[in-house]
Specification:
Blueprint (H helix, E strand, L loop, with lengths): L2 E6 L7 E5 L5 E6 L2 E2 L5 E2 L1 H8 L7 E3 L5 H4 L2 H6 L6 E3 L6 H6 L6 H13 L20 E5 L15 E6 L2 E5 L5 H7 L3 H7 L4 E3 L21 E4 L10 H5 L5 E5 L5 E4 L1 E3 H4 L2 E6 L4 E5 L1
Amino acid sequence: MSKLIMIVWDVQHGNAIYMRTPNGINIMFDIGTGSYGEGEEFSPLRYLKIKNTNFKLDYLVISHPHADHISDIKNMVDLELKPKVLSRPKGLSEEFIKDSNRKEDSELVELYLDLDRKYTAPVPDNENPRLPQNNGGVKIDIFSQTERGTSNLNNYSLVAVVQYSGQKIILPGDIEEPGWKALLDNEEFVKALSGTTIFVASHHGRESGYCSDIFNHFKPDIVIISDGRFSDTSATNRYYYHSNGAEVIKRDDGSKKKRYVLTTRKDGVIRISIDENGERKITIS
């Protein structure tokens, strides 16, 4: 049976989400990596390439170019995983992007800027991976704002809304409250929020990414937070009260439990599958 597969990788303080559509389109939402001690790094892209030597990256969505969301870009270049289509915030000056990152991350930023310069041509409809006819029935909408909180790179984050078979997933990067409130002035965005079943918390579950107003328009079954052991995830309990709860299965023993919030810090790699009938399965490490 055709399925949409979504994997939220445990990349510590970072973000990397892989999605495979029912017709085999490979998509990454952000390309962070995880550091697990001296000399140890987990690269989602390298893992996917080792698992399947024929792996190709069809679509890459970079929510915004902070280092923790693009740190796998060196492996992407080394592995020659050139995405067919790239979405990222447009119109940002190179100086602003550089100033928004640490000097020690300058190599990552330069690789990102080089990537950004290469994608200028419009994508024809028959190759657009956001359209359901090209995506095995999966629809992807991308929203962004440039009106509020514009001194902060986080507020330029692309917010992706993924729909398939009655399930709706929101992937918001690191957008903070001013950016959320600007998006809520957009009627199309408010309409897109309705019926959300899975919500990935913005900015690693930090208070700065929390906006209570968005929950006037939906109540998800589960909230997912990608964070590290020492991250400030002060809004985790707030998200708990906005969630309906959903059955979650532990992969090691098959045990089931109703959960409201999942974190990569506590739960490791989070895997979600949705079949063509809308049946959903959520598993954790």
